[in-house]
Amino acid sequence: MYASREDIGYDFGDDSKVGSKPIKPNPNIDGGWAWMIVLSSFLVHILIMGSQMALGILNMEWLEEFNQSRGLTAWVSSLSMGITLIVGPFIGLFISMCGCRKTAIIGGILNALGWILSAYASDVHYLFLTFGVTAGVGSGMVYLPAVVMVGQYFQKRRALAQGLSTTGTGFGAFLMTALLKYLCTEFGWRNAMFIQGAISLNLCVCGALMRPLSPKDIVSEKYVVKSNSEDNQAKALSHSAETIKSNGVLSEELEKKEDARNEEVLDSVQHTETGGKSRSGRNMYGLRVLKTVSQLMVTVRKGFAIWYSSYFGAASLFTNRVFVAFIIWALFAYSSFVIPFIHLPEIVKQYNLSSQNNIFPLTSIIAIVHIFGKVILGIISDLPCISTWNVFLMANFTLVTCILTLPLMQTYISLAVVCALIGFSSGYFSLMPVVTEDLVGIKHLANAYGIIICANGISALFGPPFAGWVYDITHKYDFSFYISGLLYMVGIIFLLLQPCIQKKQPREKSTEEAQV
């Protein structure tokens, strides 16, 4: 890692009150039930991200069914992908109030409903609402908890765990492409979407596996010793979080005061209920309802306070300048990855390579190599002598190079090689939660990662329709890849410049260092 959780995390307080003896860690951290969380997240990635990567099959069916332009039809896929990620910050509010398990179960029901309703679509605009919005919001409510839970259950091997869980995207893209292709051929695209909706109900089972950790287990994670090498870049990045670290104290104090007020409210309600018992039993039902409503209001207020303070309060994530640069990168990065998945079937058809592509689709090549890319990059990043940040940047450089060279390849073999490199280098997605946590700490991972995937969602929302719109004008996809690749390069440059800016500024002493 390029920075440790102790340097950047929000859990900043007086250790003397805690005591010198380390808290015994939960056996489920880095083991036990943690691997069930990995399995749950793996299945979520298969059913959500894998299905979205296979939407190129349905996109061709919609083009034939509704006879609309490629730009308009591409909005269906991009809305589903984009909204899944854009709702991230708002799903963080649900997680703060309801927890990951309930949020994921509700999202699984909503996602299945979106698929089933889309089977009755009469035009493209109907699909905007049912598949784009309904299924997209449901996907977002399952996807973010799946990522956050892996981050909570793993400390020593987090990059590997995230890599294993997110390989579900590659497996899903390969399996769902074959499944949707078979279902569309045998039953038609409408029945295929209905069947896929029934399969998506398994997301509720995945959500049920997301057993929450107790608060003391999350707090005790900061006593887990984790060895890693620090370099000059690590110091620069850790300095970028000093403002957040100092503001974290204020956030914790406000949270304690809020908890005290909430307890007073509940105590007063319980006292009233006891008095009601002694006076008369007729008001018991009303008092119980009042107590339930009070508890619900306390939960909502507490969840909203945590959510609001993370984005706009004293401990705002936007005070971290490297994190802001990370957001700018995310705004340009994801479209370069999703455009090939949506438009590659059309590109292959344009180059008269359909016969070869039917034997082994190019999207399946990306999906399969993507699996190995995530695992291998995760293993490399967990090595003590390797910087996760450097691995992340190198993978990004490889991917943007492939995107810029893809239009130059017009044979199946050359396209297959470039697609394989795209699949491997895009394995850096497994490192995004790790990089995000190192920037903001485990406590604010849900909200911070929600912002990142929201920026990715904006990129996915406009990328495929833009590529379709360019094709409608030029009858080529070349300019779509060139423009998206150049914008992607701009985002990478922002990541490269930010540490340099930090190094030029002298490091201020924190409150803890000043006391020493």
UniProtKB/TrEMBL annotation:
One of its GO terms (cellular component) is membrane. The keyword Transmembrane helix applies. GO terms for molecular function: monocarboxylic acid transmembrane transporter activity. The chain crosses the membrane at residues 33-55, 75-96, 103-121, 127-148, 160-180, 192-210, 322-344, 359-377, 389-406, 412-435, 447-467, 479-497. Gene3D superfamilies: MFS general substrate transporter like domains (1.20.1250.20). Residues 258-280 are annotated as: Disordered. SUPFAM superfamilies: MFS general substrate transporter. Residues 37-503 form the Major facilitator superfamily (MFS) profile domain. It is a multi-pass membrane protein. Signal peptide: none annotated. Keywords: Membrane, Transmembrane, Transmembrane helix. InterPro entries: MFS, MFS_dom, MFS_trans_sf, Proton-linked_MCT. This is MOT14 protein. The gene is Slc16a14.
